[in-house]
């Protein structure tokens, strides 16, 4: 029989001290989680907001899976949360949002974050926060090839459609009032409905971010009938949206995005969604990467462009 010495009093005290220190450190680590990460840890669920028809950013494929360029970033963020919380089996739920509902549903805790086609601007920064930028767009018009429309001046007195709840709606109304263009502005709830208004002749032009216009054009019966025209009325930065003041979650999101952009992973995603055929119909956005996007990938940031 092996004769084992019992710990001395001092040794026992030391062992208990280390055990207590470990317990305190464990509690401290648990208390370090704040905001959305704490909510996810407690519930075992992360709820991801997404768009239903913002091709090629965030939309449904034929199997009702959420896919797209922005969804690639969303997936990276979910993976980063799983790793940070050591929860590889974290339950992931998806919630469709629209331009009008996305901020309200985020702030009432219906979902946890959204990567779609949401512009980071100073007005929205009053009520929500944004991750590092994932895409930079120019606001332009989609028109029929034979419509003889090349700029906003050609739309005086005509019907123009733009999606409700977007920065494009705000900007179009500002220009219309400022320049007395007397345009009649139609504002359906989503991009696909806006394009239908254009396609059926109820509007002469569709004002929106150029990449979204390319996505809607790709779904047309004959995409070659439609052209994106005009100098950009503005440049805007898309970011993933999260609740205001959630510094811990924002740091995690920014790191996941910056790592993808500086490693070349984001460029691969860009080429997949903007320069090659994409589901569900194999359409090609045919948008080569811009100089602004190249600059962004080299130096990730969360700057608003207004």
Automatic annotation (TrEMBL):
Keywords: Amino-acid transport, Periplasm, Signal, Transport. It holds the Pfam family SBP_bac_3. InterPro entries: Bact_solute-bind_prot3, Solute-binding_3/MltF_N. It is found in: Periplasm. Residues 1-30 form the signal peptide. Its main location: periplasm. GO terms for cellular component: extracellular region; outer membrane-bounded periplasmic space. Transmembrane segments: none annotated. Residues 45-277 form the Solute-binding protein family 3/N-terminal domain. GO terms for biological process: amino acid transport. Belongs to the bacterial solute-binding protein 3 family. This is L-glutamate-binding protein /L-aspartate-binding protein. It comes from Orbus hercynius. The lineage of its organism: Bacteria, Pseudomonadati, Pseudomonadota, Gammaproteobacteria, Orbales.
């Amino acid at each position: 029989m092996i004769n084992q010495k019992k710990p001395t009093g001092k040794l026992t005290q030391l062992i208990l001290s280390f055990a207590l220190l470990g317990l305190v450190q464990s509690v401290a680590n648990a208390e370090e989680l704040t905001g959305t990460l704490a909510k996810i840890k407690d519930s075992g669920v992360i709820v991801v907001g997404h768009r239903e028809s913002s091709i090629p950013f965030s939309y449904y494929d034929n199997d009702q899976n959420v896919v797209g360029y922005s969804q690639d970033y969303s997936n990276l963020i979910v993976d980063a949360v799983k790793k940070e919380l050591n929860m590889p089996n974290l339950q992931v739920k998806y919630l469709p949002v629209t331009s009008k509902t996305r901020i309200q549903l985020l702030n009432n805790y219906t979902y946890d974050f959204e990567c779609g086609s949401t512009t980071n601007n100073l007005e929205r920064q009053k009520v929500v926060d944004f991750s590092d930028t994932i895409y930079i767009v120019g606001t332009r018009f989609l028109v029929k090839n034979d419509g003889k429309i090349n700029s906003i001046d050609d739309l005086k007195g005509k019907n123009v459609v733009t999606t409700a709840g977007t920065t494009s709606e705000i900007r179009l109304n500002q220009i219309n009032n400022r320049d007395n263009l007397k345009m009649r502005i139609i504002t359906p709830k989503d991009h696909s409905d806006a394009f239908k208004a254009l396609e059926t002749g109820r509007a002469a032009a569709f004002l929106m971010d150029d990449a979204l216009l390319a996505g809607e054009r790709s779904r047309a019966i004959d995409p070659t009938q439609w052209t994106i025209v005009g100098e950009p009325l503005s440049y805007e930065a898309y970011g993933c949206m999260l609740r205001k003041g959630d510094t811990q979650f924002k740091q995690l999101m920014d790191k996941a995005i910056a790592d993808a952009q500086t490693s070349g992973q984001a460029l691969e995603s860009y080429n997949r969604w903007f320069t090659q055929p994409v589901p569900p119909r194999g359409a090609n956005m045919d948008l080569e990467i811009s100089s602004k996007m190249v600059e962004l990938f080299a130096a990730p940031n969360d700057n608003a462009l207004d």
